[in-house]
């Protein structure tokens, strides 16, 4: 048993109104228990009176107190006590001020190990208000709040947290007013929840209002008064109901009084009921004030564009809908109690306020507001001009049509004039010492909305014309001018040539002069709202000095000789300086076109040309390439032998530029590789030639011929005659006669291991089958040939004994045919009844007289054998006979 001690109610005039209990699993078999207790406030409606300091909560295992844990004075500490908000879902009524309920919340963490039947957590307290209508002697009936931790027989995985109601129920209802409230709960485990009206449960008595040990389950229901039940707990039409899915309760109470109502929420996991938590609560049905009065702010005026704060003078309202009367839009509304709105157009507007729109108690109020027209003055700068180096502006104004306003201008200190009272002041001189002219205009149309506008005329910095001095004299008649940076927006260049075609409006123009000479160039720059400025500078124009000489093609070192030509001068007064470097036969020359320049070293040589003209001095450089001549060395190795003769060809050529090769190998084949191998397949003498050439740099061609460099000797032809080529093993004599061509030496090898070193011979074969004779020939150059011939030796020999005595005396103990010349062999032995008693495919396997792999031996008698075989030439044969076995 676990007893949680919670002192809830004192003995004063307050009574229990209701309550609920639930738990939260914290892990490690620990649960936090939460108890909520409600009571009325008492005569003084003071907070924090009437609740006990401690509560007694019992925890049962099945119907037994949970043991061995016993907790005395289970103090949850000072309870958190607060007022329960007195709210109505129906905005048409106002509760009387004397309805008051308080709530106390207690919590405690306990350890409860899992068991089969789980735990029941219970709190009991008495007593209820004697004025409760739907119970019999309610002052004698207390309340039980209970919830269950499921056991492992219901929830094997355990670890459940109970559902808990989300919202506090309203403490009062209005008679004849539609009521609706959401009793919905949440579940930390995400279990499915089902709601229903249930009967509150008894607990505690007047004699024992706060039981030290709450009683064990099950718990009886309260005693309902006549006509009331869990399903009909309150006089109502329509009757109170609760949605089983959402927990939404609705109905309309029809009689005054206090009523007790029970709501239960059940948890289902995977379709199994695991817990039910009850809520017990007292509703107070009272007479509510239905008077709703809508009152707007009244009629008033304001200037257009002003943000207007509206005053709400309504009484007993809950919901507010404002419409500010602007036609053609749907955004001129608000649901705030006291909203604000900005009118962007002048006019008269009807403002409507609806209080509690859509409810039977709705009321409407109207106000008329006037948005006065604005003068909307503007300052207009019509024009600018520079007079005698001073800045002048043409100033004017505009206002809304239909008005006759008065004007007051202030153009700032230093302006001429500084003040004016006309609509269009005209030309005003700016204070040139100021960076800006600040203009103020005040216009009054006598409508209560005077307006002042300001305008600033920036005084831009003065522009200053400037030309970048000439720094290039030898670039020809086309010259690129640059202006010195200035805040100018327009440019006007005059390049000093009579006529109107020598002008430009670009900041940095390029101009092509018609001839050499000296020209006076003028630049005028200007910008808005400032006076223009002028600059003048003289420029000297000469021709374009661009020294260069034509590109020289590479020349071979052994025969190089270059002719040069200087180009790029514009007059005959130009002077020339050539620098060919120390490797040239003429290192330095002052001729315009020096000839026959020879370089004494191969490689790359830098040539510099310098031209001086009209005070200009420019240089041009280029690189001349003098590549080396080719150096060639050719090698042909292993150039004599028998076919197939493989010869190595190597070309060692040195050159500064890529080379191409062409080899003619004399046998109809060619090659383009520098080094390679080639095989000559036929005898003969062959001439070889090679050509090496370059197409760039030092262009040369070199050809070399090697006559009869490759000698391929003739090959002898092996050939002989076998007579005859097919014989019988009984007469296996053959004759071999040489018929080779060009052979100096002849010898033979035979497949039976024999050999002969003479041209002609005879041979006798000892075994049947196919035999081979190979002739090898060699000529005086060491060239070889060979050929192989075949001899077919047919026939066979076999000796079959007709008797044997397997008696283990060492004499004639086994029976086996003696064979030769056989390719395939199969022997079977039968008794006189035709039963096969021995079989073999091996000519060397004997019969010992056994039967069935030696299980026993046959008796003396006569046995028949059948031998099938093929000779070495694949001819089939069959032999039959009898064997006499005796021991």
Descriptors for this entry?
single chain; 887 residues; flat
Q: How far is the first residue's CA from the last residue's CA?
A: 105 Å
Oligomeric assembly: single chain
Number of strands: 67
Main beta-sheet annotation:
8 strands, mixed
What coarse outline follows from CA principal-axis ratios?
Answer: flat
Helix content: under 10%
Helix-strand makeup class: mainly beta
Write up what this structure looks like:
The chain is mostly beta strands and 887 residues long. It is built from no helices and 67 strands. The strands form 18 sheets. Strands 2, 3, 6, 7, 11, 14, 17 and 18 form an eight-stranded mixed β-sheet that branches. Strands 1, 4, 5, 8 and 9 form a five-stranded antiparallel β-sheet that branches. It starts with a strand and ends with a strand. The relative contact order is 0.05.
Brief characterization of the structure:
With 887 residues, the protein is an all-beta fold.
Topology:
Blueprint lengths: L1 E3 L11 E12 L2 E11 L16 E5 L2 E2 L14 E4 L17 E11 L7 E7 L17 E7 L14 E2 L6 E3 L3 E5 L2 E2 L5 E7 L42 E2 L5 E5 L4 E13 L2 E15 L13 E4 L3 E3 L10 E4 L9 E2 L5 E3 L4 E9 L7 E10 L5 E10 L2 E9 L7 E5 L8 E2 L5 E4 L6 E9 L6 E8 L19 E3 L9 E5 L8 E2 L5 E3 L4 E10 L6 E9 L33 E5 L8 E2 L13 E11 L2 E11 L4 E7 L2 E2 L3 E10 L5 E5 L5 E2 L3 E6 L3 E10 L7 E12 L7 E4 L2 E3 L4 E6 L6 E6 L4 E2 L4 E4 L4 E10 L5 E11 L2 E3 L3 E2 L13 E3 L1 E9 L5 E5 L9 E2 L4 E2 L3 E11 L4 E10 L2
Parallel strand pairs: 11-18, 19-25, 44-50, 52-58, 60-67
Antiparallel strand pairs: 1-4, 2-3, 2-18, 3-7, 4-5, 4-8, 6-7, 8-9, 10-13, 12-16, 14-17, 15-16, 17-18, 20-23, 21-22, 21-24, 24-25, 26-27, 27-30, 28-29, 28-31, 31-32, 33-36, 34-35, 34-37, 37-38, 39-40, 39-41, 41-42, 43-45, 45-48, 46-47, 46-49, 49-50, 51-53, 53-56, 54-55, 54-57, 57-58, 59-61, ...
């Amino acid at each position: 048993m676990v007893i949680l001690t919670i002192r809830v109610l004192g003995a004063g005039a307050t009574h229990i109104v209701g309550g609920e209990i639930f738990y939260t699993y914290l892990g490690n078999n620990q649960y936090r228990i939460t108890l909520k207790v409600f009571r009325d406030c008492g005569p003084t409606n003071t907070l924090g009176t009437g609740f006990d300091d401690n509560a007694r909560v019992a925890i049962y295992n099945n119907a037994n107190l949970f043991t061995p844990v016993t907790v005395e004075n289970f103090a949850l500490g000072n309870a958190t006590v607060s007022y329960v908000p007195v709210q109505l879902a129906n905005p048409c009524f106002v509760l009387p001020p004397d309805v008051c309920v308080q709530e106390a919340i207690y919590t405690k963490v306990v350890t409860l190990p899992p068991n089969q039947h789980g735990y029941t957590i219970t709190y009991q307290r008495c007593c209820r208000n004697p004025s409760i209508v739907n119970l019999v002697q309610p002052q004698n009936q207390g309340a039980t709040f209970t919830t269950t931790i499921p056991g492992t027989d219901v929830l094997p995985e355990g670890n459940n947290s109970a559902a808990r109601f989300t919202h506090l129920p309203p403490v009062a209802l209005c008679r004849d007013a539609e009521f609706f409230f959401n009793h919905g709960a949440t579940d930390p485990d995400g279990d499915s929840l089902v709601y229903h009206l249930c009967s509150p449960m008894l607990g505690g008595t007047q004699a024992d209002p706060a039981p030290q040990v709450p009683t064990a389950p099950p718990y009886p229901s309260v005693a309902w008064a006549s006509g009331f039940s869990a399903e009909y707990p309150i006089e109502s039409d329509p009757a109170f109901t609760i949605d089983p899915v959402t927990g939404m309760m609705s109905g309309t109470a029809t009689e005054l009084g206090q009523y007790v109502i029970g709501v239960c929420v059940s948890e289902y996991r995977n379709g199994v009921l695991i817990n039910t938590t009850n809520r017990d609560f007292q509703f107070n049905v009272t007479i509510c004030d239905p008077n709703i009065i809508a009152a707007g702010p009244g009629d008033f005026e304001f200037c257009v564009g002003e943000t207007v704060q509206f005053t709400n003078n309504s009484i007993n309202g809950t919901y507010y809908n404002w419409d500010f009367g602007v036609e053609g839009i749907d955004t001129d509304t608000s649901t705030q109690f006291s909203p604000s709105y900005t009118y962007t157009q002048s006019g008269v507007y009807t403002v409507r306020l609806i209080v509690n729109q859509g409810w039977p108690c709705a009321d409407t109020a109207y106000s008329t507001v006037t948005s006065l027209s604005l003068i909307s003055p503007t300052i207009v700068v019509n024009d600018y001009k520079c007079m005698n180096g001073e800045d002048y502006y043409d100033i004017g104004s505009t206002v809304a049509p239909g008005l006759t306003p008065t004007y007051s201008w202030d153009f700032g200190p230093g302006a001429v004039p500084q003040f004016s009272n006309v609509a269009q002041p005209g030309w005003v001189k700016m204070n040139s010492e100021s960076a800006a002219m600040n203009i103020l205009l005040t216009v009054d149309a006598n409508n209560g909305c005077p307006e002042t506008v300001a305008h600033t005329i920036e005084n831009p910095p003065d522009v200053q014309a400037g030309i970048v001095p000439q720094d290039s004299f030898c670039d020809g008649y086309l010259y690129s001018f640059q202006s010195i940076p200035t805040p100018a927006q327009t440019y006007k260049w005059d390049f000093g040539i009579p006529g109107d075609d020598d002008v430009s409006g670009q900041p940095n123009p390029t101009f092509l002069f018609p001839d050499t000479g000296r020209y006076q160039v003028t630049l005028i720059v200007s910008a808005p709202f400032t006076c223009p400025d002028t600059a003048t500078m003289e420029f000297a124009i000469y021709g374009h000095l661009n020294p260069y000489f034509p590109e020289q093609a590479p020349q071979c070192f052994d025969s190089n000789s270059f002719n040069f030509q200087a180009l790029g001068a514009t007059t005959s007064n130009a002077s020339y300086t050539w620098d060919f470097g120390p490797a040239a036969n003429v290192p330095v020359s002052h001729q315009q076109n020096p000839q026959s320049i020879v370089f004494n070293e191969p490689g790359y040589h830098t040539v510099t040309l310098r031209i001086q003209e009209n005070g200009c001095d420019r240089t041009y450089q280029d690189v001349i390439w003098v590549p080396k001549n080719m150096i060639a060395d050719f090698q042909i190795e292993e150039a004599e032998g028998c076919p197939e003769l493989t010869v190595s060809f190597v070309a060692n050529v040195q050159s500064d530029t890529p080379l191409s090769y062409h080899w003619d190998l004399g046998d109809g084949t060619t090659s383009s590789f520098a080094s390679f191998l080639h095989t000559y397949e036929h005898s003969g003498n062959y001439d070889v030639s090679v050509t090496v050439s370059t197409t760039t740099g030092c262009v040369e061609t070199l050809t070399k011929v090697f006559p009869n460099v490759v000698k391929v000797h003739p090959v002898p032809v092996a050939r002989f005659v076998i007579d005859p080529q097919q014989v019988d093993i009984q007469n296996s004599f053959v004759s071999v006669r040489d018929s080779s061509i060009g052979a100096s030496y002849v010898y033979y090898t035979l497949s039976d291991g024999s050999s002969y070193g003479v041209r002609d011979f005879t041979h006798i074969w000892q075994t049947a089958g196919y035999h081979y004779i190979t002739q090898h020939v060699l000529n005086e150059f060491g060239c070889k040939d060979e050929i192989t011939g075949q001899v077919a030796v047919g026939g066979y020999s076999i000796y079959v004994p007709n008797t044997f005595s397997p008696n283990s005396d060492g004499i004639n103990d086994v029976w086996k045919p003696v064979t030769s010349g056989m390719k395939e062999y199969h022997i079977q032995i039968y008794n006189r009844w035709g039963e096969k008693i021995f079989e073999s495919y091996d000519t060397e396997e004997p019969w010992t007289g056994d039967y069935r792999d030696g299980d026993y031996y046959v008796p003396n008698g006569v046995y028949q054998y059948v031998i099938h075989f093929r000779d070495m030439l694949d001819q089939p044969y069959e032999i039959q006979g009898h064997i006499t076995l005796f021991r």
